[in-house]
Write a structure and sequence with these properties.
Layout lengths: L6 H7 L11 H21 L6 E4 L2 H13 L8 E5 L4 H12 L3 E5 L9 H7 L4 E5 L13 H11 L3 E4 L18 E5 L10 E5 L25 H16 L1 H22 L4 E2 L10 E5 L5 H10 L19 H5 L4 H4 L2 E5 L6 H19 L1
Parallel strand pairs: 2-3, 2-4, 4-5, 5-6
Antiparallel strand pairs: 1-7, 6-7, 8-9, 9-10
Helix pairs in contact: 2-7, 3-4, 8-12, 9-12
Length: about 375
């Protein structure tokens, strides 16, 4: 949902309909919104504006980076390392490159979702062109040690791509300190509009455009800019970071209360990721013997909206690749439940959810 604080702003800018590439007055009004947005994004990430590309989503950003690095394939540098729990946008693109001749290595995780940095080090070789490890997992909420991963990659002289979709807007990101060479994010994860993505590339990295046909985004991404979406996305990020400590305290307290209440009423529930190593807005659980899909549908009818995995894979009857990478079998990997909270939730909603979930689980168990 779009940040409620931005509803009036959305109406205010709606009549600015010029093309930011045009020189007439309407076009220049749009250009000013675009320039202000880029400035906000750069300040929020502590990077140069010239190293940001505005895209339609993180999927486009990921495709741009991977295909920029690997196409055309260079026989001397054609090796890609990705973690087993990356978003399908990255895994599917990596597999597509593998089909075209790239060498792909998968970095495993343990039963708690932890990466083995020693294994990562052993996978790196002279032919490695890129390492891709997400900042936090989109299903379980597991936070990865991206600082250590980045340090290891820098020591080996290999660029690192970081999917920060679940992190930007919830935690501060300083690209002057974080050792990543590419970073992607999506606006709807910090209550901006859907259809706006961010791509960062380090000054020393080369980026080739995925979309050709115009000089927008300094030639890195052709296509008329989504001015309204971009501007509201920038304002949404500014708002999220401005009030970050208060938002975090509010959301974390609800998440912890939710877990404690559910654990008391449903002793069979299993916590997938320790709360201390998870995003503060995410709670991932399993109730052995009850499919997540069945629970999702029953809760939806009761007015509680949860998910069983990535929204991008909703409707799929396949078990979660993330949970299977953590060692669960196919049946167990169908039992995952993800509760995602936001600053717009209330403690009253959390208390109601505990009662509803306990009642629904009890009914399904019978």
């Amino acid at each position: 949902m779009l940040a409620s604080e931005l509803q009036d702003l959305a109406q205010e800018i709606w009549n600015i309909n010029g093309n930011a590439s045009s020189v007439h007055q309407s076009g220049q009004k749009a250009r000013r919104l675009l320039n202000e947005s880029r400035e906000i994004f750069a300040q929020s990430l502590n990077c140069a504006e010239k190293n940001l590309v505005l895209t339609s989503c993180a999927t486009e950003s990921i495709n741009t980076i991977l295909k920029s690095v690997f196409l055309p394939l260079d026989a001397k540098k054609n090796h890609l390392i990705v973690s087993a729990v990356e978003h399908s946008a990255l895994l599917e693109t990596a597999k597509n490159l593998q089909e075209q001749g790239a060498e792909l290595s998968i970095l495993s995780v343990d039963a708690k979702g932890n990466l083995d940095l020693a294994e990562l080090g052993s996978l790196i070789k002279n032919e490695t062109a890129l390492i891709a490890v997400m900042y936090a997992n989109n299903e379980t909420g597991k936070i990865f040690p991206i600082q250590q991963v980045g340090d290891l990659a820098r020591e080996a002289g290999v660029p690192l791509l970081c999917d920060a979709v679940q992190v930007l807007g919830k935690y501060p990101i300083d690209l002057k300190k974080l050792p990543v060479d590419f970073l992607v994010a999506s606006a709807h994860k910090f209550h901006g509009p859907k259809g706006v993505g961010l791509l960062y590339f380090a000054p020393e990295q080369k980026l080739n455009p995925l979309l050709l046909g115009g000089r927008q985004e300094r030639g890195y991404r052709a296509g008329t800019e989504n001015i309204h979406g971009i501007y509201l996305a920038a304002k949404a990020l500014e708002l999220a970071l401005k009030n970050l400590p208060d938002y975090e305290q509010h959301i974390r307290s609800m998440r912890d209360y939710l877990y404690q209440g559910l654990a008391e009423k449903i002793p069979e529930l299993q916590l997938t990721i320790d709360l201390d190593s998870s995003l503060y807005n995410t709670l991932h659980l399993r109730r052995p013997g009850i499919s997540g899909e069945s629970l999702l549908m029953s809760l939806d009818m009761a007015g509680i909206e949860i998910s069983v995995g990535s929204a991008c894979d909703s409707g799929s009857l396949e078990p979660s690749h993330v949970l299977m990478a953590m060692g669960l079998n196919e049946q167990e990997a169908m039992e995952g439940l993800r509760f995602s909270l936001s600053r717009y939730n209330t403690m009253a909603e959390i208390k109601k959810s505990i009662e509803v979930v306990a009642r629904v689980v009890g009914g399904l168990k019978k």
